[in-house]
């Protein structure tokens, strides 16, 4: 199993376990997240780029992987992704660089699958 499959499988399994607890607050947070990234006044591609940039600035590697996967699904190009990387690194500062490295590696995996 590769890194992408491993990440998606783990994420799915844990989300299922969490949601199975039937906690109203957690279910609403998950639903809010789903609805926030749905097509609306802002297109899905733009929302995923925003999500990716914010995740990089907040230094959440799992979130970065998730949004990279979504960016790949909606058809963003490598050039577009690297523009998002540049904005996130500018805003977040040099502390984002280790996350940038892992993000570039993960994008390469997505592109080569």
TrEMBL record:
Q: Which UniProt keywords apply?
A: Oxidoreductase, Peroxidase
Q: Per the record's keyword annotation, is Transcription regulation included, yes or no?
A: no
- Output the Gene Ontology terms for molecular function: peroxiredoxin activity
Question: Per the database record, which ranges form the Carboxymuconolactone decarboxylase-like domain?
Answer: 25-105
Concerning PANTHER family, the annotation shows: ALKYL HYDROPEROXIDE REDUCTASE AHPD (PTHR33930), BLR3452 PROTEIN (PTHR33930:SF2)
NCBIfam families tied to this protein = ahpD_dom
Q: What is this protein called?
A: AhpD family alkylhydroperoxidase
Question: Which species does the entry assign this protein to?
Answer: Algoriphagus chordae
